Amino acid sequence: MATKVGVPIPPSIPAPLAAYLRALAKRPLLTKMITGGVLSFLQEPLSSSLAHLPPPEPSPTVSRLSPELAYLLARLHVSPRALKLALYGFLVSAPMGHFLVLMITKAFSGMQGAKARVGQILMSNLVAAPIQVSAYLASTAIIHGARSPQQVVGAVQAGFLRAMKMTWITSPAAVLFAQQFFAPELWAPWFNLVNFCLGTYFGVVIKRQQALKGKGKGKDEKAEKKDL
Which PANTHER family does the entry mention (predicted)? Predict the structure, then answer.
């Protein structure tokens, strides 16, 4: 078994993880797309639960097939929005991350040593990260109901600085942690976990902001009715 030619997978790695690493070596882009879709799908119900949002109404379409299943999915916060996020992870996030990594790798091809490692970290945080954060914020804004370009741009501007600060803190720390404690073949699953945690955190923040806006609108409407 090998993650790439000449790099064997240690026998101590559990079989499911070894199978994933083999798939990653054989079909890197497709494996990353499937992983991105699954993790993005899971972020939606998890972030909704952590944000303490009430469960959505059961889907009428699913209710026609099975009311019990529709109720269960609603209680688990599994909604059409989760499916849209899965498409984002599959079609946008994973391919974009894959090709950005290739770009950084090619930029430092043949270079070794501390300067090359520092250069890769800087390029990742100053070039790749802003692109990924902007795409994530724009995509989630559309998924959450933004329709006009102004709404999408406003959502990106509102969350960009906070997201970048979190990325600039966690990304170098994640790289240093991986360099210190993980073999190179385990870096891909490790960074998937880090990105999943970050995406879930950003999802919680966005949902709490939307919940506060919704409460504010509700109070304003009640005040208007009292004035009338």
Answer: INTEGRAL MEMBRANE PROTEIN 25D9-6, PEROXISOMAL MEMBRANE PROTEIN 2, PXMP2 MPV17
